[in-house]
Amino acid sequence: MAQIAKRTKKGSLIILIKGQVFTEKLEKDNNVLGRISNTSDVDIKLDSPVMSRIHGTIFKENGCYYYLDAGSTNGTFVDGKYYQGNGTPVPLLEGSVIEIRSRNEQFGVLMIFSMFDYSRQKWNVRYLEDGMTNQVYIGRSAAPDGISIPSVQLSRQHGVFNRTNETWVYQDLNSKNGTFINRKAVKGPVVLKEKDIIQIVNIKIIYTRGMLIYNLPNSGCELRIDNISKLVKCPKTDSAYKQNNHMKCILDSVSVTIEPSEFVAVLGGSGAGKTTFLNCINGYEEATSGAVYMDGINLYTHKAQLKKQIGYVPQEDLLRNGISVKQTLEFIAKMRLPKDVNKEEREQRIKQTFEMLALDEKCQASDVKKVSGGQRKRVSIASELVSDPPILFLDEPTSGLDPETETNLISSLRNLAHVHEKTVIVITHTLKNIDMFDKILFFAPGGKLCFAGTPEEAYELFHVKDMTDIYKIVREHTAEYDLYYRQNCVK
Fold first, then answer.
1. pLDDT tens for each residue of 238-291
2. Which of 28, 65, 411, 469 lies at 20 to 30 Å from 324 by C-alpha?
3. How far apart, in Å, are the Cα atoms of 248 and each of 71, 232, 466, 480?
4. What pTM was computed for the model?
5. In angstroms, rounded to a whole number, what is the distance separating the alpha carbons of residues 491 and 259?
6. Would you say the C-alpha torsion 328, 340, 219, 172 has a positive or negative sign?
7. Is the dihedral of CA 114, 116, 119, 121 positive or negative?
8. Hey, which residues does 57 pair with through a beta bridge?
9. How many helices, marked H, and strands, marked E, lie in the chain?
10. How far is it, in rounded angstroms, from Cα 475 to Cα 446?
11. Are 402 and 409 within 8 A, CB to CB?
């Protein structure tokens, strides 16, 4: 068996210098931070006079990140505590704040550490402690001095930050999709604490040092599947009847992480648990054990709020004949979008959705029952995309399509992930276009995940040139590859 290197999740830094916010991915296990100079010894070079030429190092060890000051001139504050070359590594946790400043500055460089890769996202900063206002709204169309996020997933005025004496308080304004603070749903007013993380759909807002540092909705969500299993009652005739208290395992302790805006194929033969897996990770049904996290929030615990952020296209479409394609989307948009989305905004969102899926005006004016099979499938996808969900699940979207139409549809789905920044997860049996996917998940009978990685890594691991050959390999050597995956690929 070929050895595939164990994938390690890479963290990132959200960096604030001189009022500008940008991100850096921690590409290495040992990342040296320092001032911009000609030296090649520095991995992350920052333009600030408070930085030493080599200031410190962020390194990874046994799956954990640490910071070590290199005896710098100004030293380093990590979560408010000062360090200066004492040789002791400081553990970094999700949201840890690293500050570098001279004695007479409030801050020179501020970095927020995250275990997530935020390097593809755009971030902004809103200063609260500027003395200009005691109230800041956030929403799709906030007040002129508020935070406006152009997404129909947000209500027009989604929430508000209010100053109360020396503290700031956040209040959700009965929004349709709600607000989470530190991964817990909130309704009443909440006093903000240092490093609180406010999440609204796939927008994250970090409260620190009297500032709101927030990302724009330009990426899909991360999906972390943590050891999920599914047991069902089995008939007396089943060989598993006497095992597990008359229960049969159809999904067996599956763990995998799907990155934001990744294009993923779910593969496996009949009885491998593909549909069960999809239903358990999109919330349609719950696993018997384990958990699923969308951007760190437990899907099963907060299904009522998170389900509005999920698009699901079943194998059999539910489209209604007798009305035009455009009328179909107008009806769905009016039903699914927040009530404060006006007609002009709905029309704009419908137009964007048609453009994303290359559905022209002729198709839009046609009766749903008269469009081609490929177009009908695109209309089904459009009916989910119109509400702008960050993640989209599809069950056999190419079933019954001719090869050319199939290729065009897969290309469009890839485009949704890579251009329009949706996380897209597809169950498929056809392998003609499998190399277009970023990641494939290969299931064996009994719902065992035997592989998760790129198509290139699959060819290497299974020693095949044709992906079809993997079906037989995992069926005949399920235990071997199931064990290999658990030992080498599960973090």
1. 665 555 567 889 999 999 999 889 999 999 998 899 999 999 999 999 999 999
2. 411
3. 59, 5, 32, 21
4. 0.88
5. 14
6. negative
7. negative
8. 32, 68
9. 10, 32
10. 10
11. no
